[in-house]
Amino acid sequence: MNLAVLGAQWGDEGKGKIVDLLTPRFDLVARYQGGHNAGHTVYVNGVKFVLRLIPSGILHSRVVCLIGNGLVVDPQAFFTEVDELGRNGINVENRLFVSDKAHLILPYHRDLDLLSEARRGERKIGTTSRGIGPAYEDKIARRGIRVGDLADPKALEQNVKDNVLARNRLVHDSTMDWHVVLGQLLEIGKRLQPLVRDVSLMLHDAARAGKSILFEGAQGTLLDIDHGTYPYVTSSNATIGGVCTGLGVGPRAIHGVLGVVKAYTTRVGEGPLPTELSDDMGKRLRDSGNEYGAVTGRPRRCGWYDAVAVRYGVRINGLDALALTKLDVLDGLEQIEICTAYRIGARTITDMPSDVAQLAACQPVYESMPGWDRPTKGVRRFDDLPENARRYVARLEKVTGVPAALVSTGSDRDETILRDDIIGTRLSGLHLK
Ligand code: GDP
Ligand code: IMO
Ligand code: MG
Fold it and tell me: Which regions of the chain are under pLDDT 50?
């Protein structure tokens, strides 16, 4: 079975942990969009790994990891990550490949990201300043430079020259030297070229040979360029459609869709967050959930579980099941709120409004649940959860409309409840391996 694992909120749902945990059931793990704006944290026996561009399956030595055409690749960041893994005993040789059609992030993209944010002033997006947006802009404008272009130095020279000179005109005080950019690119290109593949073809051949694939999403549904809270979004399709376009596979290659969601809500960067808590409770969630960005270290904004947002994620992605993470962060709370609808003026709505200004005007409608005293941290069987924690999970499933096949109770691999009955009915085939 091939499974897509993606975020159904505003990113940082715990995709890295879930992908790592499920990887032993697959032969390949493929990322389909984003870049090193992602920060996917995996803990193995207390050792922390943060994967940015490289799929979170890489820690399993048997598995082949692929970076699809839908990504924007900063070659420097890529090799920093490869080297970091190497220092930690993870060898990626012969099992990490990059699509020839993926676009490159070049130094001027980072400059343009910063400039664009500065120009927006108070309306800034709060990007990760990695050059992600400007690199995708070039892709769409058909002037981007792709990984495969590294194989043709002559054409590359012309492209780099045109792009750098155009950028220098755009950024008035920029005197970036295209020779330097080209030199760096050719140098790093030598190291990158042996890893370059036709990823779509590799996936096709793997599927024909009976191998199974996990498609790993970055960011989350509400950060999707089309379906997110535009313009406060990232510049790629984090939602399910991105799997097909970002890897070159047909829709029937996706046999199941698992949405990762936190038992509450977080967001990093600007843009509306209806359930945001600016009070002590928000601080409590940030502290006990250690809600600081894995990439930028920025504090994440925290709030209660927003079922309107997750239901939207269910609809956009056709989720078969949820992986519910960070339940343990709610341990010890007396009362927990669940947002089931929004109030806007005199109206109550149960679907996400398309317009960001409308969303910003929405007030959450809450229902309360009692908390639990006994910790859920590290619990591995659903029946071992405190009764109120079980009731909370059941209520989330009910208001979201999709069952939780996995419940995560800590950051380590082992701190997870695998609900075989739900996996069997909703993700049948996942247990086969
Ligand atoms: P991703 O971007 O979706 O992979 O998520 P991040 O790695 O950015 O953020 C999730 C954070 O929560 C990481 O620090 C994880 O180690 C941590 N985490 C994941 N699952 C759990 C859980 O069930 N409980 C707790 N306490 N932490 C978790
Ligand atoms: P993972 O994969 C959370 C947010 C940024 C900003 C917006 C645009 O770890 O869940 P960008 O640099 O992409 O142009 O920034 O998107 N953002 C993320 N938020 N998790 C992420 O990735 C994110 N990647 C980007 O904070 O609001
Ligand atoms: Mg993250």
Answer: none
The closest alpha carbon to 216, from 38, 420, 86, 9, belongs to: 38
* Contacts of residue 160, Cβ cutoff 8 Å, sequence gap at least 6: 106, 145, 178, 181, 182, 185
Distances (CA, A) of 256 to 9, 35, 55, 224, 424: 18, 24, 19, 20, 12
Report cis status (omega within 30 of 0) of the bond before 364: no
Based on DSSP, count helices (H) and strands (E) in the chain, helices before strands.
13, 20
Closest CA to 426 of 400, 406, 399, 407: 406
| Nearest-5° Cα angle at 122, 117 to 126 | 45
Edge-first strand order for the sheet with 3-7 is: 196-197, 96-99, 64-67, 28-31, 213-216, 3-7, 256-262, 321-325, 404-408, 416-418
Tell the burial category of 118 from Cβ atoms under 10 Å away from its Cβ (0-12, 13-18, 19+).
exposed
Cα 265 to the center of its chain, rounded Å: 15
Atom of ligand 2 nearest to the CA of 294: 9
Tell whether ligand 2 has an atom less than 6 A from the beta carbon of residue 268: yes
**pLDDT tens profile 234-264:** 999 999 999 999 999 999 999 999 999 999 9
141 CB neighbour count, 10 Å cutoff: 8
Domains with residue ranges and CATH for the chain: 3-89+199-426 (3.90.170.10), 103-195 (1.10.300.10)
Residues 332/386, Cβ–Cβ less than 8 Å: no
At 246, which helix (H) or strand (E)? helix 241-247
Is the CB of residue 20 below 6 angstroms from any atom belonging to ligand 1?
no
**Which residue, judged by its Cα, is nearest atom 12 of ligand 1?**
14
Ligand 1 close to Cβ of residue 14 (< 6 A): yes
Question: Each residue of 169-218: pLDDT tens digit?
Answer: 887 777 889 999 999 999 999 999 999 999 999 999 999 999 999 999 99
| Substitution site in 234, 265, 276, 291 for ligand 2 pocket (most atoms within 8 Å of beta carbon) | 234
Q: Is 267 in the pocket of ligand 1 (CB under 6 A)?
A: no
Known catalytic residues are 12, 40
Residue 28 and residue 212 in contact, taking contact as beta carbons nearer than 8 Å: yes
Minimum-distance ligand to the CA of 15? 1
What spatial distance separates the first Cα and last Cα of the chain, rounded to whole Å? 9
Residues in Cβ contact with 177 at an 8 Å cutoff, skipping those fewer than 6 apart: 164
Which pTM does this prediction carry?
Answer: 0.98
